Amino acid sequence: MRKIFLGEPPANIKKWIDEHYSPGPEPGPTAPDGKVLYKTAAGGEWLQDDANISSGTFNGFVNVDKTTAVEVIIPSKDASGNDVTSIGENVFSGCPALTTVTIPSTVTSIGFLAFEGCSGLTSVTIPDSVTSIGRSAFYGCSGLTSVTIGNSVTSIGRYAFNGCSGLTSVTIPFGVTSFGDYAFGGCSGLTSVTIGNGVTSIGASAFFGCSGLTSVTIPNSVTSIGDGAFSDCSGLTSVTIGNNVAEIYADTFYNCTSVNDVYCYPNPANLTWTEGNKDDFKTDGSTVCHVKP
Question: What is the mean pLDDT of the chain?
Answer without folding.
Answer: 87
